[in-house]
Amino acid sequence: MRSLTPSFRWNLLCLLVLSLLTTNCTSSAPAFGERGGYVETGKASYYSDKLKGNKMANGKRYKPGKRTAAHKKLPFGTKVKVTNPRNGRSVKVMITDRGPFAPGRIIDLSKSAARKLDMEKSGVVPVQMKVIKTSK
């Protein structure tokens, strides 16, 4: 049996390390079956007033006075608590739409929710989002 070349051994080692790293990674996808506990951090933005009355992904119309939000993956009806770490304010919202579609943003909030977090002037703020209750 012939010996392995140094480059082949290096490639084999790289593949082994890569497979070990990817096997131990945890998914960032929400745990939909659990009641609460899923936490995500990132940036939040809020809906423009121009969207008032437009249909959301759940089929209902957007009302700026309701405390609702858009998330890319969480099921409609999921309740989440969103906290602004800059001022400690938090708000509970229900997921009713899909989005946001801007890179780095994890949630789009209604105008009422944005007001509660005191983020109207800045438009985009860092937040922590925690699932309180998933929908059935």
UniProtKB/TrEMBL annotation:
Its EC number is 4.2.2.-. It is an enzyme of class 4 (lyase). The keyword Signal applies. InterPro entries: RlpA, RlpA-like_DPBB, RlpA-like_sf, RplA. It holds the Pfam family DPBB_1. Residues 40-128 form the RlpA-like protein double-psi beta-barrel domain. Keywords: Cell wall biogenesis/degradation, Lyase, Signal. It comes from the Bacteria. The keyword Cell membrane does not apply. One of its GO terms (molecular function) is lytic endotransglycosylase activity. Residues 1-33 form the signal peptide. One of its GO terms (biological process) is peptidoglycan metabolic process. Lytic transglycosylase with a strong preference for naked glycan strands that lack stem peptides. This is Probable endolytic peptidoglycan transglycosylase RlpA.
